[in-house]
Amino acid sequence: MTTSADDGAAMAGGLGWMYGRDLPLLSLTFARQINARELLERMGVDRNTVAVREQDDFHHELRDLLYAPDGYVVSAGHYGSWAWVWEHGSWKGLEDPGLVLRASIGTAAVVLNANEKPGVVFRYAENGRLTTGLDTRTGFARTGGDPHRFDTELQGLGARPEEDEYGPLGSREIFYRLAEKLGVGLPLDDLNERPVLSGRLLPPHSQ
């Protein structure tokens, strides 16, 4: 994946390079204080496919599956105290509601999904339980044991969740910023320049 991010945006926050980008598919999972291999295990990875690959090898080995919805190709790495997993063409983080719960056992996890249509799905779980789920595809639909947990943060970012208004940042960037407030990030160079831990997730129905 390549972008034309300017240096300022690329350095802004843990997801700063994503601000304003045309990313038609976004499916990210983060977990705190576990390593990337453990996060892949919790997400249900095919262990036979997991390896650290140079970028040329990654694209050569997985090119036919890379952007296929049923390919479940992922890259994984670390940012601060968080592990991240990027799904290149699939939606397992959205298709499998239990994924964020498994990822959060003994810690905290975030799932962030968006596509070309307006709206974002944000799920935050702690120790195997969904704390806050926000789905802006139809207003600010809420789930979880503490569905209003992040209202103060969203309001501070200019949103009016009680009125289904995203504010000046729009429906994507406001959730990038909310996730960043938890400490998550994903370095652009780790995604498309440096050797990367990668593999394929097992489809939800096969687990």
Domain count, please report it. 1
The helix-and-strand class reads alpha+beta
Strand order of the largest sheet: 2-9-3-4-1-5-6-7-8
- Distance between the first and last residues' Cα: 29 Å
Could you tell me the number of beta strands? 9
Q: Report the mean per-residue pLDDT as an integer.
A: 89
**What letter string, H or E per element, gives the SSE order?**
HEHEHEEHHEEEEHHHE
How would a crystallographer describe the biggest sheet? Answer: 9 strands, antiparallel
**What is the general shape?**
globular
- What portion of residues is helical? 25-40%
Number of helical elements: 8
Uncertain segments of ≥5 residues (pLDDT<50)?
A: 1-12
Radius of gyration: 16 Å
- The percent range for strand residues is 25-35%
